[in-house]
Write a structure and sequence with these properties.
alpha/beta, seven-stranded mixed beta sheet, TIM Barrel, 41% helix, globular
């Protein structure tokens, strides 16, 4: 049996590569290494020895991480790499191989964008896996020949070659993977993971993979891990059993975060009915498109749903059309009213700087966010990644500056400044501050650290919302302990 190290490499303070995009979090958000953990659970089931090191969350230096790697002595090191930390991630993999002789395989969204380019950056990398990597990693650990493993890129006679693409995992294969929350319980300290909008401590899981809409031009997972539109589901009995496991075996958990890209009407109804019939009561949150029916929203509330994370992105029709959001401002109004009337909280995500954005459209979005009644909000520059439709569109329109959107009529500096202003205007309204003081446990006490960091970003120059930050980070020294503060671009 193989010794398999699952690694999120060390980088800079508060760097987060486990979420839907990679960024430095000013709110100190720490998402679980969801995809690595699913792979680890399956590897353990097949008899392999697994260690997961989530170095950024543990705030480990490069040398501290290497000490843990030397102690484990892996046969394979699985590196979950990200776009903005790619140079660091590849160099650190080389250090691991030099120190231990471990073979290296790279996974993650960055790898799925251009796996051949990843392999070309270092002879030390033995292989790269695109898309879902749970079963390919098991096959590597089992000692299969490279030529037999689907989704694999590797070198053969000095040339980079690849095998055929594996079909996306269906219900039977997803159900075979053990509960990711049980893997968290064995390998992670759940108190290390927090997201400002979630009750603390929380755990997350997937009830299905892929996005039923799957057309948004900016979405990294949709264009890398599970190309859409597709929504492959675990059986509802399997999901309900995992909810029960969390309630019975992890009583300290205050909330479950359903990480499906978009909970559909059908899935939300099925999940809610299953939880009610099983008598399972635990708060949970989810992502959803703003198209859930009022009846489903009420059912979700009865079944314990506390909050829905909604990617509104913009309240401008032109912008929504340009990013292929498949939604309209009128639809947003109806959904938001229905969700709030059902007693649900809403976290709204708003992206600034998409094609078609203007100063007035940004103001339009902020005005709506402030009057909508949503609970919390996040305003950020829209992320771009090579090969994604958004990136290619901006590149063709010559609207990229250091991989950030910038237009003749709307510079990236203006977009950054507006993001900061939007945050301040949303959270420092008298009405909102009254809610904070009235319900301190919900709005303040559990989020003291993140709020402090956000306030610093408002009143000081620490938060620069980009500013060529990708280049600034890649030029930093290898060990974060010897480095200066880094520009940050996410709440």
């Amino acid at each position: 049996m193989a010794r398999m190290l699952l690694l999120s490499p060390p980088y800079v303070r508060n760097y987060m590569r486990n979420a839907r995009c990679d960024y430095v979090s000013i709110s100190q958000a720490n998402y679980y290494p969801l995809w690595l953990a699913y792979a680890g659970a399956l590897l353990e089931k097949r008899g392999h020895t697994v260690q997961l090191i989530d170095a950024p969350v543990l705030r480990l230096s490069h040398e501290e991480t290497l000490d843990l790697v030397r102690e484990f002595q892996p046969d394979w090191t699985v590196v979950y790499a990200s776009t903005k930390s790619q140079d660091n991630d590849i160099r650190f993999g080389e250090m691991v191989k030099q120190e231990t002789g471990s073979r290296l395989v790279y996974v993650g969204p960055f790898v799925s964008i251009d796996p051949a380019a990843v392999l070309a950056q270092s002879e030390a990398i033995d292989a790269a896996v695109i898309r879902e990597f749970d079963y390919p990693l098991v096959e590597l650990a089992d000692g299969w020949e490279f030529s037999q493993i689907k989704n694999l890129f590797y070198r053969l006679d000095g040339q980079i070659v690849h095998n055929e693409i594996r079909p996306l995992l269906g219900t039977a294969e997803l159900d075979e993977i053990p509960f990711v929350t049980a893997f968290y319980k064995r390998h992670l300290n759940i108190w290390d993971y927090k997201v400002p909008q979630q009750l603390y401590p929380f755990v997350d899981l997937l009830t299905g993979r892929g996005c039923a809409w799957g057309r948004c031009t900016f979405c990294l997972w949709v264009h890398t891990f599970v190309p859409g539109p597709v929504y492959n589901l675990r059986s509802i009995d399997n999901v309900i059993a995992e909810f029960r496991f969390v309630v019975e075996e992890m009583p300290e958990v205050k909330e479950i975060f359903v990480q499906d890209d978009m909970l559909t009407n059908e899935r939300a109804r099925e999940l809610s009915q299953g939880l009610l019939e099983a008598g399972i009561r635990i708060p949970w949150t989810c992502y959803a498109k703003a198209n859930l029916d009022a009846e489903v929203l009420r059912l979700m509330k009865r079944a314990g749903c506390r909050m829905i994370h909604v990617g509104y992105e913009s309240l401008n029709r032109t912008v929504l059309k340009n990013i292929k959001k498949g939604a309209s401002p009128r639809q947003y109004e109806t959904f938001t009213r229905n969700a709030l009337e059902a007693g649900l909280e809403i976290h709204g995500d708003f992206l600034l700087g998409a094609p078609g954005e203007t100063r007035e459209s940004m103001r339009e979005t902020l005005r709506w966010a402030k009057r909508s009644g949503i609970t919390t909000a996040q305003f950020e520059i829209i992320n771009t990644y090579p090969t994604l439709p958004l990136y290619e569109q901006l590149k063709q329109e010559q609207a990229l500056e250091d991989d950030e959107p910038s237009y003749p009529h709307l510079s990236r500096e203006e977009i950054r400044a507006f993001a900061k202003r939007a945050f301040a205007e949303f959270y420092f309204r008298p009405h909102y501050l009254k809610k904070v003081l009235t319900h301190p446990r919900d709005y303040f006490l559990t989020k003291l650290g993140p709020i402090g960091e956000m306030c610093k970003s408002i009143f000081f120059r620490r938060w620069k919302m980009g500013g060529g930050w990708t280049k600034a980070i890649s030029a930093r020294p290898a060990d974060p302990a010897t480095s200066a503060p880094v520009s940050e671009n996410r709440q």
